[in-house]
Amino acid sequence: MNPYVEFDGQLFQLELSQACSIAIPLTFDEHQPNHFGAAQAQAQPLQAGGFVGDTQRGGSCNVQSISMVPHCNGTHTETVQHIVDQSVAVGDALSSSLTSCFVLSVTPIAASDTEESYHPNLELNDQVITKAMLQEQLSSEDLDLMGSVAIRTLPNAPSKCETVYGQEHQPPFFTTEAIQWLSQSNIHHLLVDFPSIDKMYDEGQLHNHHTFWNVPAGSHELTDTTLTHRTITEMIYINDDITDGLYWLNLQIPHFQLDAAPSRPVLYPLTDVTQDNGGEDVGTE
């Protein structure tokens, strides 16, 4: 039975059978996305004493030992611990893993085509996502209703699932004004299909991360106003079959006591049943 949720005075049915993961499948030791020159994620059969965790090599079962960098090897979710000294473990980050999510598509533009800014300064060949383009699709009032926002950049080639980002292939990022606008809203979770909300080579300042979590620039300390409940999920992939609009998000994170972990965000389509219900209280099934 499909449950119902109420959002902004409307009743929706969650289409559980149409769930769609927007995590990039991680194929170990083969083509995979990569950021900042990290080693590839690897998987090897466990070997301990006379035991080999590989049935093709005579083992009784398959047992893999993996090595990876969550921030660089694929879809991952991070907390403010990414930029502060104190522990805010990603495994403890979710008060609820289910929330509303607005999916929107944007086409990054050259820094020379906007008057918006970034710290440190923009370079002409930088590709940026601006506040203006976000506001074309989502009002401040609607944004405040959302628990999360997932951003798809165009063009949306499947090659994103194995792109190696580096000096010769730098990803887009948000302008300061764009991240300030998102930060001033009520959203808890920001999901993007590029490796970082900051510029890849930004002198290590991570200014957008500091803004989103309300940590003073240059500081690595939590304050009373730090938004510790927020997460950032990077390197998702939103298939073209998923249209822009409102969904319900299930953000699945392992209980790692680290600043980041591989994650699996799942979107559920919503069917508006307000009129069919005639305004009665349906609840959940």
UniProtKB/TrEMBL annotation:
SUPFAM superfamilies: Putative cyclase (SSF102198)
Protein name: Cyclase family protein
